[in-house]
């Protein structure tokens, strides 16, 4: 297994600390592998294997465990009350009332608890009710470009330039399984479509008791087709109205929230740079991995700019930046990234083929009168330069930068 140090290093700091470690992310993004890597780390610290209890609730071995009460009895039966226990629970949302059992583990035993789940509402409802102030969340993304390079070099012995590898990454996305063997594009998209179907069915339809699956899938396609564009739930409702299908606005909101909670999409708010406030309308939506779009709608050249924006967004999120879309008067900045006292701006485009395009991309950043770093990120193969302090960087190089500030 390749160690995903981007996440492991964050989680390792909390080993043996009195917090439940909650690892979330879309299905097949690598949560279970990170749990196995944490198990190895704990053993390397001198803990006996018998002190580690590891359960994956998608396994048929535990199909009879349905409730928190049954989970509690299972763990109590197997643990050693005389030694500290490390309890690893994979895909915990499969268990009803799991949060009550996890809370009891912390109260009744000398235990260090790690859980994974494929739904962000783990945190907003169940965990917040029973474990407020006693957990830390680590959201896992699919592979970023740097990790993709490592996987390809390890599993496929790839020796390509960074830009060649980026084009490979661009067409396949970052689900780890796709980079463990030389799958064709058709096979890769078939694998991802199965992941998508599982996330739709189990983490949205079943969990939120959605009845109109066809409507949900049409909303998904609308979002996928508008990656990188600002729109609102009202825009979606108006679109369906133009197609002679009436849809309640609350239904749109509920379906978008369900998709967001399953990590299929991310909602990024807009920020008024001059007014210094978040705006409540016309957000942008992105996907947790571009391959989801390809698996549902195919690869469309006209979407390339939005896909590149999506890739940059995921990179920033993986580095724990808070990200918003910038508004400067009538101009828009693709991303404002903030972490602590650090901040920078990013404008993303496919190519800069002519002067008018260059001016459009740079002028939005030039309208911001502060001294934080500013980047224009493209796939332009011919030139990189700095214009009035704004750095033009090829996207492959941008994704591999150690620091942006």
Describe, in plain words, how this protein is organized in 3D.
With 405 residues, the protein is α/β, with parallel strands linked by helices. The protein has helices at residues 5-12, 31-44, 68-78, 98-108, 121-130, 145-155, 162-172, 185-205, 213-225, 233-242, 249-261, 290-297, 304-318, 355-366, 395-400, and strands at residues 20-24, 52-56, 85-90, 111-117, 135-139, 265-272, 277-287, 322-328, 331-339, 342-348, 374-378, 386-387, 390-394. Strands 7-6-8-9-10-11-13-12 form an eight-stranded mixed β-sheet. α8 packs across α11 (249-261). It starts with a helix and ends in a 5-residue tail after the last helix.
Which descriptors would you attach to this protein?
eight-stranded mixed beta sheet, alpha/beta, single chain, 405 residues, Rossmann fold, globular, five-stranded parallel beta sheet
Please give a quick description of this structure.
This protein is of the alpha/beta class and 405 residues long. The protein is 43% helix and 20% strand.
CATH architecture of the domain at 5-139: 3-Layer(aba) Sandwich
Give the oligomer, counting copies of the same chain as homo and different chains as hetero. Answer: single chain
Please identify the structural class as seen in this structure: alpha/beta
Mean pLDDT: 92
Range of helix content: 40-55%
Whole-angstrom Rg:
22 Å
The CATH class of the domain at 5-139 turns out to be Alpha Beta
Order of helices and strands: HEHEHEHEHEHHHHHHEEHHEEEHEEEH
Strand order of the largest sheet: 7-6-8-9-10-11-13-12
């Amino acid at each position: 297994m390749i160690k995903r140090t981007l996440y492991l290093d964050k989680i390792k700091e909390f080993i043996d600390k009195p917090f439940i470690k909650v690892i979330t992310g879309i299905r097949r993004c690598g949560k279970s592998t990170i749990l196995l890597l944490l198990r190895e780390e704990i053993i390397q610290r001198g803990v006996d294997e018998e002190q580690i209890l590891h359960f994956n609730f998608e396994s048929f071995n535990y199909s009879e465990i349905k409730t928190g009460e049954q989970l509690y009895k299972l763990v109590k039966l197997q643990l050693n009350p005389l030694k500290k226990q490390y309890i690893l629970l994979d895909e915990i949302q499969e268990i009803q009332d799991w949060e009550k059992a996890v809370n009891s583990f912390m109260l009744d035993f000398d235990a260090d608890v790690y859980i994974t789940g494929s739904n962000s509402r783990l945190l907003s409802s169940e965990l917040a009710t029973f474990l407020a102030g006693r957990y830390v969340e680590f959201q896992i993304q699919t592979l970023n470009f740097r990790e993709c390079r490592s996987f390809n070099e390890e599993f496929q012995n790839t020796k390509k330039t960074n830009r060649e590898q980026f084009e490979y990454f661009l067409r396949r996305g970052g689900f780890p399984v796709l980079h463990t063997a030389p799958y064709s594009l058709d096979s890769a998209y078939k694998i991802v479509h199965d992941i998508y179907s599982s996330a739709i069915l189990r983490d949205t339809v079943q969990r939120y008791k959605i009845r109109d699956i066809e409507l949900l899938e049409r909303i998904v396609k609308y979002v996928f087709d508008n990656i990188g564009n600002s729109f609102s739930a009202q825009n979606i409702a108006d679109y369906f109205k133009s197609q002679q299908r009436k849809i309640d606005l609350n239904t749109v909101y509920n379906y978008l929230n369900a998709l967001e909670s399953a990590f299929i999409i991310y909602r990024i708010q807009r920020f008024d740079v001059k007014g210094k406030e978040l705006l409540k309308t016309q957000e942008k939506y992105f996907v947790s991995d571009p391959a989801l779009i390809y698996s549902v709608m195919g690869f469309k050249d006209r979407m390339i700019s939005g896909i590149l924006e999506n890739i940059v967004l995921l990179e920033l999120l993986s580095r724990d930046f808070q990200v918003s879309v910038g508004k400067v008067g009538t101009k828009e900045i693709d991303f404002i990234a903030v972490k602590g006292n650090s901040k920078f701006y990013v404008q993303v485009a496919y190519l800069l083929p002519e002067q008018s395009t260059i001016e459009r991309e740079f002028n939005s950043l030039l309208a911001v009168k502060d001294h934080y770093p500013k980047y224009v990120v493209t796939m332009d193969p011919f030139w990189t330069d700095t214009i009035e302090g704004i750095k033009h960087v090829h996207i492959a190089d941008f994704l591999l930068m150690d620091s942006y500030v």
